[in-house]
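User: Now give one protein:

AI:
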Amino acid sequence: MRASFENRKPIVTIFDKFSLKSKTAIVTGAGGGIGRAICVAYAEAGAAVACVDLNLAQVSETVAAIAAAGGRALAIECDVASETATHAAVERTVAQFGALHVLLNGAAGSDPTGTVLDYDLAAWNKVFAINVGGAFLMSKWAIPHITRAGGGSIIHIASQMGSIVAPARVAYCASKGALIQLAKVMTMDHAAANIRVNTLSPGAVETDRMILRAGTMESARERFGPKHVLNRLGLPIELAPAALFLASDASSFMTGADLLVDGGYNAW
């Protein structure tokens, strides 16, 4: 006897797997560029998003864009290199939204160009304190809450330069490589809590960081675009779908992996 239409279970499509409905996410580095695009994508997928950044004015613009589209978001000013500030950011998120399911560590500091001979210890430590220490601290405070929520996803934004190198980028390359290894260790340590940990590695993307390195965006396009097989820089919006994939159940069998979205940079 056929079940009545009313009693049938709804069909779950592949697109439902990308939903973050009823989920809460924290995104660091949310003030602009890649971080802002990811925050907007998470909110559009149904998540409540805590947008964390050192620059409160910029991150407030991210939250305003989400609110204007009918999403839920919270702006949090935070230095991710600070133990007390990161702890407060996570606790404020959970107090506001009730739980935590996704953490994306995207905060990154500006790294001086140079070799090990050019760096002093303070400059080296500053890059690692933000790029790696920030991911460590945010994860430390987030994991107990994600565990209580039944599991979830942690994503570290690494780089194509975490697996290859460029001259005179010693601190950047080393710190991004460390994030890839950090994710793999965390994968092993927290799988029993149903927590998946992956890295997302962009190629060169049209953000303010490119202008800092090249002077103008046009110069950045000319200088760095040809290093990619696609012969151009990426756009922040092109990273957001990958970040949504890693945060959602669409990637439920993926952990300990490094997802390259690099325009073919690593294919040479």
Q: What stands out?
A: Residues 170-190 form the longest helix (21 residues). The two ends are 59 Å apart (CA to CA). Strands lie at 24-28, 48-53, 72-77, 102-105, 152-157, 195-202, 258-261. The chain has a mean pLDDT of 95.
